[in-house]
Design brief:
Blueprint (H helix, E strand, L loop, with lengths): L2 H15 L12 H21 L4 H4 L6 E2 L2 E2 L1 E4 L4 E4 L17 H11 L8 E9 L4 E12 L2 E8 L5 H17 L1 H9 L12 E5 L4 E5 L21 H11 L2 E9 L6 E11 L2 E8 L3
Antiparallel strand pairs: 1-2, 3-4, 3-7, 5-6, 6-7, 8-9, 8-12, 10-11, 11-12
Length: 285
């Protein structure tokens, strides 16, 4: 990943933080939010006590790394000062000069914000080095003098509500133009594939996959024979539901392509003009 891409993402995420007071979300990531805020508070206290002497501690694999969480610090002139994660390769580099005009304008707004003791948060899409994918990330940060101290976590699992919204969107597109929509799903169009959410479509006449947003090798194969990772006949169960219902849902064990682990998946179903359209989400730990 280029230096520009890394720092551009940092600048964009910080811009989205400006003027947004911290709110602790009551959601499935509440435990991660608490861990991130605890690590940030610890780092801010350390920096206030030791000043720049604390930066070396933030960059070591020690007290300021908690699993996948790590502290990183950027100053208001655009220099990465510390990082306990992959962005450590940027430490000491004056990256502000590599930004284009638009990003310079955004960063200027960031550094113009006051130091007011407020923790701010935002969500944005960013590269996850561990999974080699772009995922949603939630970041918390606080400005101390001319230092921006930050910590964030990735959000690889989408909610049931997000899965149902995507199902509604894709079902509508299948109803209006099935051929184009199936092609877009098979091309992994970014509007029809969101984080760990993707659709698959089955032709009820042939009982075969006609589209799959993640595993193209399944296209044209017998859907009825599909089984969960623990052997349950999910293809048969879905076809049985769709004989008598226009909508439905099913839960089963499946491999999450984002985490690479077998996880329980809740899949929502919609019958549309002779097709079954499905979108599922993985259970959040």
């Amino acid at each position: 990943m280029s230096l520009y891409r890394v720092f551009a993402g940092l600048c964009l995420c910080l811009f989205s933080l400006v003027g947004v007071a911290q709110q602790t979300p009551v959601d499935a990531y509440d435990a991660d939010t608490q861990r991130a805020n605890a690590l940030l508070a610890k780092a801010v206290a350390e920096y206030k006590a030791k000043g720049d002497a604390a930066l070396a501690e933030f960059s070591r694999q020690g007290a300021y790394v908690d699993g996948e969480l790590y502290i990183y610090v950027v100053d208001t002139s655009g220099v990465m000062l510390a990082s306990g994660g992959p962005s450590a390769s940027l430490i000491g580099k004056p990256v502000f000069s590599v930004l284009d005009d638009d990003l310079k304008a955004i960063f200027q707004q960031i550094i113009s914000q006051p130091e007011d003791g407020v923790v701010r948060s935002a969500e944005y899409r960013w590269w996850n080095w561990q999974h080699a994918k772009v995922e949603r990330k939630r970041v918390f940060y606080e400005r101390v003098q001319d230092r921006v101290i930050s910590v964030g976590y990735y959000m690889p699992r989408s909610s049931p509500e997000q899965a149902q919204q995507l199902l509604h969107q894709i079902s509508g597109q299948v109803a209006s133009d099935a051929k184009t929509t199936l092609d877009l799903i098979n091309q992994h169009d970014k509007q029809l594939t969101q984080d760990d959410l993707y659709a698959f479509v089955v032709d009820l006449k042939t009982k075969r996959f006609v589209a799959h947003g993640f595993t193209p090798r399944l296209i044209g194969t017998d859907f009825k024979s599909l089984r969960s990772t623990d052997g349950k006949p999910i293809g048969e169960d879905i076809l049985k539901q769709m004989k008598t219902h226009e909508t439905g849902e099913i839960a089963y064990l499946w491999r999450n392509p984002i985490t690479g682990q077998n996880e329980y998946k809740r899949t929502f179903l919609q019958r549309v003009n002779g097709y079954v359209v499905a979108v599922g989400c993985y259970a959040i730990k």
